[in-house]
Amino acid sequence: MLPTLIANFLSPAVMRILSTGWAPEWTHDRCICELIKGYTILKNSTYANV
After folding, report:
1. CA distance 20 to 1
2. Which of 10, 43, 44, 48 is an S-S bond match for 14, by CB 3.0 to 4.6 Å?
3. How far apart are CA 21 and CA 42, in angstroms?
């Protein structure tokens, strides 16, 4: 069970999903690192379609 402090910030839908025992494979930190890697690939160009 999650600590009460964390549980207070989660929506009821998220709490129902977590109560089934499901857990994400990637943490928030890993996702942010992947986003940063992706953004560094993009070229800063006036003509970029991003």
Report:
1. 11
2. 10
3. 37
Distance CA 23, CA 31 (A): 15
In 22-33, which positions are buried (b, 16+ CB within 10 angstroms) versus exposed (e)? eeeeeeeeeeee
Nearest CA among 14, 33, 22 for reference residue 6 = 14
User: What are all long-range contacts of 13-18, with beta carbons under 8 Å and residues at least 24 apart?
Assistant: none
Task: Name the residue ranges covered by the structural domains of the chain.
Answer: 4-41
Cα three-residue angle 33-24-2, rounded to 5 degrees: 110
Name the 3-class secondary structure at 19.
Answer: helix
